[in-house]
Design a protein that fits this description.
The structure holds 2 protein chains of 2 kinds.
Chain A (H helix, E strand, L loop, with lengths): L1 E6 L6 H11 L3 E6 L10 E4 L19 H11 L3 E5 L1 H8 L6 E3 L7 E9 L15 E8 L3 E3 L2 H9 L3 E5 L10 E5 L5 E4 L16 H17 L1
Parallel strand pairs in A: 1-2, 1-3, 3-4, 4-11
Antiparallel strand pairs in A: 5-8, 6-7, 6-9, 9-10, 10-11
Chain B lengths: L6 H6 L4 H11 L5 H10 L2 H4 L4 H4 L9 E3 L6 E6 L2 E9 L1 H6 L1 H17 L4 E11 L8 H22 L3 E8 L8 E11 L14 E6 L9 H5 L19 H16 L3 E6 L4 H13 L2 E5 L12 H6 L5 E6 L4 H10 L4 E8 L3 E6 L2 E7 H5 L28 H9 L8 H4 L10 E3 L6 E4 L5 E9 L1 H6 L1 H18 L3 E10 L6 H20 L4 E7 L3 E2 L2 E2 L3 E11 L14 E5 L14 H5 L13 H16 L5 E4 L4 H9 L6 E7 L5 H6 L6 E5 L2 H10 L4 E9 L1 E6 L2 E7 H16 L6
Parallel strand pairs in B: 4-5, 9-12, 17-18, 24-27
Antiparallel strand pairs in B: 1-2, 2-3, 3-6, 4-6, 7-10, 7-11, 8-10, 9-11, 12-13, 14-15, 15-16, 16-21, 17-21, 19-20, 22-25, 22-26, 23-25, 24-26, 27-28
Helix pairs in contact in B: 7-8, 7-10, 8-10, 10-13, 18-19, 18-21
The chains are: A alpha/beta, B alpha+beta.
């Protein structure tokens, strides 16, 4: 399984994602430069955390115009698996692959800490190896992670079982405690917590593996089919 | 340039008349204004260490681990497996007072560049920050504003750059209210063959400028002060620079990638004095000349004079020398990262710094005159300034549990979660132990080794006795590292003091440096670099003498030993014993500060040989996996350490039975060093190991659920629910800041 990790100028969790994929999951990991117009033959794509293009304007607002995002959109439209973590989630909402937006934390400060998550659906390539309602402890590290969307969109997502993860101790004021969501086709997920940071027992937990391994096994079955 | 160099102009550049005479004799003529500006920054205290150089020579700088000692951008230490670490600390005190956010942010930026200019990728930052008291009725609001600004500035820069802020210290004391301290430590990792030096090697090689454009920001304060020698620019610009962590991140990636081409022969960041220091220091180290044409320098605004460009402290810039004929390899990497990279000059064989603008020479100075022939002062010193009395108020507690509660809710001892939760302490997924731990630990991927680091200062101890205080700080850092099982190997230091021209302040500096030298030699942790920050005074009132020490060590990569009690029913052993302090040793403690609101007496006594044996013992025990937790006794003494150990998720407390003649306040709160609180399932093995090392060890009780109880000879001294103590400790900083964490 070959997983591409997009590198924007200012991505800073790209190495962490690479390490989790190649060392902890023993899969092939490949960096994809933001100017690449094509993704090659990847089985899945991770948009890592960081501050793409500095995020001085609005998180992800510039990243959405990068050549690689046009390629990611095509990849997603063809059913390819796309996981956006933290800044990657912000980029996905900016470029319209996911609804809603991530705004300044309710506490107005950057927050880095472990949070308790609840798996809200197991009907996705990113959560199918979890139990519904399973609790995961995964860290967040962001200043703008408060998820918002209008009521209609939120209701639609709830009805379609597209809320993937919810906070049990909401660190940023996200509406309806939303920590991660899916697109309509369920092949794109964005989440603010960092599964790649808890993919190694030395890092104090391995709950992130539930998400990353779901992705790997889903990607493998897609490749085989 | 036509401006005349009058005595007023010389004085405005903070150069003495003797120093000006030295410039005249070095040049053999009168300097131009640009040249005067260049001399003034290179010969400033900040760049030249002119007051301390003769004393800094006393520091030990060598060991089998040291690959690079002081004099380069950072020290380098071998950690085995062909891997090395570079680390250093630097201060940004004055800018952080004027503009807390940008002052602290650019402080982080500056030290990170010092690390990656050597080829190392930064993998950890720690901060030592000191402010006035948050609850001061007069200055409290300002102190709170400065703290909040500094913390956000550190968070802004480090988080965006992508380096974890893994630890540090935060202290509040009246003396810092007009002069906060912001000292930033950074550590990077690389392989032995990947080290780069700031040397302009190879006559004829091109000199290349990379990174942010040069603007008028941060130009030397002296140049701002006097309008008569500024030409066109009448406009005053803030003296504090503005940081751009995104630019720095690009610079990091581009520099490391460009270094891999093999086409770079020397590189240095543009820190203080920007273009000036990078050019003349690189030339001086290589024994070459450097000629640049400022017209080629990427500029943020039009009409800047050579004087302004040479003194600009615009951030996120580097100067490098490439191998002639291979420039394009370097330039193409910077182009890939979207950064300015421009050839601005050439390495020459005449040893001169020659600055041209459109071909016209504005400065021509021997590099060595700037970098190596700065004045060196043997400043007079007498006895260290000491305001504190020998005797203190009587020690008589109104209630020991209330005292413990007050200590745990005090600014210095309470939980600093409000601060470190704003820092990304995990990015790069190496942080085995982060903020709040005994010592920070980061693993080195691709090896079996981790690096532990501790950062500590104690202005109170040093105010009472700078020599003894500094030795205690070194001992404490080494003890922190040993307590997590790491072997301490090297030191960096930031000496924060007042005006060295006052003999009683100079005496503090000398005593402190000699104490540092003695302790670093004894604990075999040579000093590989550091920083000196002087003139930390407001309206003639100096800060407490505050040397800050950062020590690094190594240990095998594994899950770290926790600080907190893990479960009930474990034996608690006090390694090192209860101690036998004299009454006067209570005067520098947190008990004296919080309960007595006083500073008096002497710092705790340190027996370095005994301390070393205690550290050796705990390292043995950790590596033999005989311990369930370990925490050294520091500020606040035994009672505070026991409370801290009980603040884990499970609220596991302790039932302690002591048998001593010590008075209860002394017993609970004295800060005698060489003591470590450990829990174990096999106390007999712990006691035996202590005995083998000729170290005292006392089994003092056992862990239990939910309560901390301390008895001495059947008298109950402390009896409290863990939850009550923990609540006070956890929320104190938010209360002091009137700024609860929302959500």
């Amino acid at each position: 399984m070959k997983i591409g990790i997009v590198v924007f100028p200012g991505s800073n969790c790209d190495h962490d994602a690479w390490y989790a994929v190649s060392e902890n999951l023993q899969q092939q990991a490949e960096f994809v430069w933001h100017e690449s117009a094509s993704l090659g033959n990847l089985d899945a794509v991770i948009l890592p955390g960081g501050f793409a293009y500095g995020d001085y304007l609005r998180c992800g607002a510039i990243a959405k115009f990068s050549p690689v995002m046009a390629a990611v959109k095509r990849f997603a439209a063809d059913g390819g698996l796309v996981l956006g973590v933290c800044n990657g989630f912000q980029v996905l909402t900016e470029c319209g692959l996911l609804p809603g937006a991530l705004v300044r934390n309710a506490g107005l400060k950057f927050v880095c800490r472990a949070v308790e998550l609840e798996v809200a659906t197991t009907n996705s390539p990113f959560t199918h190896e979890a139990e519904k309602g399973q609790r995961l402890t995964v860290p967040v590290a962001h200043g703008e992670g408060c998820y918002i969307a209008d009521e209609r969109v939120l209701d639609e997502m709830e009805d379609a079982d597209r809320i993937a993860l919810r906070y049990l101790d909401n660190p940023n004021g996200s509406v309806r405690n939303i920590a991660g969501i899916l697109n309509e086709q369920r092949n794109v997920m964005g989440l603010m917590p960092h599964p790649e940071r808890v993919a190694d027992p030395l890092m104090g937990g391995t709950d992130g593996l539930t998400i990353l391994q779901s992705l790997v096994h889903a990607g493998m079955s897609v490749s085989q089919s | 340039m036509s401006s005349e160099i009058t005595p007023e102009v010389v004085a405005a550049h903070q150069l003495s008349s003797d120093e000006y005479q030295k410039i005249l004799s070095l040049l053999g003529r009168e300097p131009s204004l640009t040249e005067l500006g260049i001399f003034s920054v290179m010969w400033s205290e900040h760049c030249s260490y002119k007051s301390t150089r003769v004393h800094l020579k006393k520091l030990p700088t060598e060991s089998a681990h040291v690959l690079q000692g002081p004099g380069e951008n950072a020290g380098i230490i071998d950690i085995g497996d062909g891997v090395a670490i570079a680390f250093k600390i630097e201060s940004h005190n004055h800018p952080s007072f004027i503009e807390p956010f940008q002052g602290a942010a650019t402080g982080v930026g500056g030290i990170l560049r010092d690390i990656f200019t050597m080829g190392a990728r930064p993998i950890a930052v720690m901060d030592s920050i000191r402010f006035g008291r948050l609850d001061d009725p007069v200055t409290g609001a300002r102190n709170r504003r400065i703290l909040e600004g500094v913390v956000s500035g550190i968070a802004h820069y480090g988080n965006c750059f992508g380096v974890p802020t893994v630890g540090g210290e935060c202290v509040f004391e009246k003396s810092y209210e007009g002069n906060p301290l912001v000292n930033v430590f950074a550590l990077g990792v690389f392989k032995h063959g990947e080290v780069f030096y700031g040397k302009a090697i190879g006559v004829g090689n091109p000199v290349i400028y990379v990174g942010a454009k040069t603007g008028r920001d941060g130009i030397h304060g002296a140049s701002m002060a006097s309008a008569e020698f500024t030409e066109e620019s009448k406009q005053k610009r803030p003296n504090v620079q503005v940081g751009d962590p995104f630019m720095e991140k690009l610079l990091l990636e581009a520099c490391l990638e460009a270094m891999k081409t093999g086409a770079i022969v020397g590189i240095q960041d543009m820190g203080a004095a920007g273009l000036t220091s990078s050019t003349c220091e690189m030339g001086s180290r290589a024994g070459t000349g450097v000629e640049i044409d400022l017209a080629q320098v990427p500029q943020r605004e039009a009409g800047m004079t050579p004087y302004e460009m040479m003194l600009s402290e615009s951030q996120e810039r580097m100067l490098l020398v490439a191998a002639k004929g291979r420039e394009h390899e370097v330039l193409s990497v910077f182009k890939k990262w979207g950064l300015d990279a421009t050839e601005i000059g050439v390495v020459t064989d005449d040893g001169m710094l020659r600055v041209k603008n459109n071909g016209v020479v504005f400065a021509e100075i021997p590099n060595r005159a700037l970098a190596d022939e700065a004045p060196k002062y043997h400043r007079p010193f007498t006895k260290p300034l000491r305001d504190a009395p020998v005797d203190g108020p009587p020690i008589k507690s109104k209630g020991l549990t209330a005292d413990l509660q007050a200590l745990l809710s005090s600014g210095d001892l309470c939980s600093k979660r409000w601060i470190w939760q704003q820092y990304d302490y995990q990015v790069r997924t190496n942080t085995l132990a982060g903020p709040g731990a005994e010592a920070a630990i980061v693993r080195i991927k691709g090896t079996e080794t981790s690096v532990a680091m501790a950062l500590d200062g104690n202005g109170r101890y040093c105010a009472l006795d700078p020599r003894a205080g500094t030795k205690l700080i070194v001992a404490e850092c080494c003890r922190n590292l040993s307590t997590v099982g790491a072997l301490p190997i090297a030191t960096t230091n930031n000496l924060n003091f007042g005006n060295p021209e006052r003999p009683e302040i100079m005496a503090q500096i000398v005593e402190s440096i000699e104490g540092l030298a003695e302790a670093c030699r004894f604990f075999e942790v040579p000093v590989t670099g550091g920083n000196v920050s002087l003139y930390n005074e407001t309206l003639g009132s100096p800060i407490l003498p505050t040397p800050v020490v950062g020590i690094v060590g190594t240990l095998p990569t594994a899950l770290p030993l926790p600080l907190r009690f893990a479960k009930p029913g474990l034996s608690i052993v006090l390694l090192g014993g209860l101690g036998q302090p004299a009454m006067a040793e209570m005067g520098g403690t947190q008990y004296a500060k919080v309960i007595q609101d006083a500073l008096w007496g002497v710092p705790p006594k340190l027996d370095m040989a005994y301390e070393k044996r205690v550290q050796q013992t705990v390292r043995e025990l950790v590596r033999a996996k005989l311990l369930a937790s370990a925490h050294d006794l520091g500020e606040g003494g035994l009672a505070v350490a026991l409370a801290e150990c009980s603040f884990g998720d499970g609220n596991i407390g302790a039932d302690i039975h002591l048998d001593t003649h010590l008075g209860p306040e002394m017993l609970l709160f004295h800060e005698g060093p060489s003591r470590i609180l450990v829990t174990t399932q096999s106390p007999e093995n712990v006691l035996a190991a202590a005995h083998r090392n000729s170290v005292q060890a006392v089994a003092i009780g056992a862990t239990l659920e939910a309560r901390v109880t301390i008895r001495n000879r059947n008298e109950i001294l402390i009896d409290s629910a863990v939850e009550d103590l923990k609540g006070l400790w956890a929320r104190a900083l938010e209360h002091l800041l009137h700024n609860p964490v929302l959500v």
